[in-house]
Amino acid sequence: MVSSRRCVGGTVSAEEQDPLSAAQIRRVTAVLALGGVPREDRADGVQQVRLRLVERLARGAEVPRDLGAWAAAVASNHAVDWHRSRNRQELVGERLRTMAEWRQSVPGPEAELLTLAVAEGLDTLPPLQRQVLVLRYYVDLTVPRIAAVLSIPVGTVKSRLHAAERAMRARLESEAVEA
């Protein structure tokens, strides 16, 4: 049942009040999942993204030009903050269940082995490296766009991405996993 609230012009449904579209909410949830935020904390992460947007608008700032990319970057930052505040890593089993929800790959032992290796590799990366890796390869943002949404220099994005890629490559090669 859809709840509604009275406003001056009539009734507005809950869906119409949400500043994020359903697709943006799915993307934010996926970024949180890939960032290692446990399932039970992801709804709070989505709420934090909404709150940041509402606060931004309340300050008189405009809606971000690419709201989806902005929301994904905020979600990625929230995932980094979650790890910092909890100072722990997520269990590999939970990460595998999360990745299974979001990936579309051919089932089989090779795919499962690769998924496990990538999940473990993501878990070992420092949060800032994991953040740029997720934004680049899972959210599909360009390096300049990542720099813009994170408000950091392009060179910093490139160096973090390079270090993350090198670490992931070394891990996959050491486990003899082929993509």
Give a brief rundown of this model.
The chain has 179 residues and is mainly alpha-helical. It has 9 helices and 2 strands, in the order ββααααααααα.
Structural class: mainly alpha
Count of helical regions: 9
Spatial sequence of strands, sheet with the most strands: 1-2
Query: Low-confidence parts, pLDDT < 50 over ≥5 residues?
Result: 1-15, 88-93
User: What composes the largest sheet?
Assistant: 2 strands, antiparallel
* Total strand segments: 2
State the order of secondary-structure elements, H for helix, E for strand. Answer: EEHHHHHHHHH
Rg estimate, integer Å: 18 Å
Shape: globular
- Determine the fraction of residues in helical runs and give it as a percent range: 55-70%
How much is the average pLDDT?
78
Task: Report the span from N to C terminus.
Answer: 45 Å
Share of residues in strands: under 5%
Describe the overall structure.
The chain contains nine helices and two strands. It is mainly alpha-helical. Strands 1-2 form a two-stranded antiparallel ribbon. The longest helix has 21 residues, at 154-174. The relative contact order is 0.12. Residues 1-15 and 88-93 have low confidence and may be disordered.
Looking at this protein, list some descriptive labels.
single chain, 179 residues, mainly alpha, 2 strands, globular
Write the layout of secondary structure elements.
Elements: E1 4-7, E2 10-13, H1 14-17, H2 22-34, H3 39-58, H4 67-86, H5 92-102, H6 109-124, H7 127-137, H8 143-150, H9 154-174
Antiparallel strand pairs: 1-2
Helix pairs in contact: 2-3, 2-4, 3-4, 4-7, 4-8, 5-6, 6-9, 7-9, 8-9
